[in-house]
Specification:
The protein has about 130 residues and is of the alpha+beta class. About 30% of the residues lie in helices and about 20% in strands. Strand 2 and strand 3 form a beta hairpin. Helix 3 packs across helix 5. The longest helix is centred in the C-terminal third of the chain and has 16 residues.
Length: about 130
């Protein structure tokens, strides 16, 4: 199994439908940050194992969101609890709507495709 593109199950816990993987262009989930990243595991706030000064190994759970290097380096700070996952970028959604490799997915998910197309038509009109 690869980690290039997959559904972001952690975002579903927040009521958001979006994609993850190192092949998915994204924006840092820090609310005021617009740094472009991808949703690969290298940008994911996830469970980490650390060693304390006295050599004890401790485990820290992550929130499952994706952050740029600057915000990921802060660790899973308590403020993450109130963060909402940012939606997929227009670039990614356009790829899903037009790339030939996504045709089988489009055929299997006509309702989602219709919603995406409607959203992009509305964005063009404004």
């Amino acid at each position: 199994m690869g980690y290039s593109v997959y559904e972001d199950r952690d975002a579903h816990d927040h009521g958001v439908s979006r994609w993850a993987g190192y092949g998915v262009p994204a924006v840092c989930d820090w609310p005021t940050c617009s740094t472009e990243i991808n949703r690969g595991l290298g940008f994911k706030c996830e469970r980490r194992y650390m060693e304390t000064e006295d050599g004890e190994e401790i485990e820290e759970d992550g929130c499952g969101l994706y952050f740029c290097i600057e915000h990921l380096a802060l660790g899973c700070v308590p403020e993450h609890d109130g963060f909402t996952p940012k939606p997929d970028t227009a670039e990614w959604e356009q790829w899903m709507l037009t790339d030939e490799s996504w045709e089988p997915w489009r055929q299997e998910h006509p309702e989602v495709v219709a919603q995406l197309r409607q959203r992009h038509d509305l964005e063009k009109a404004s």
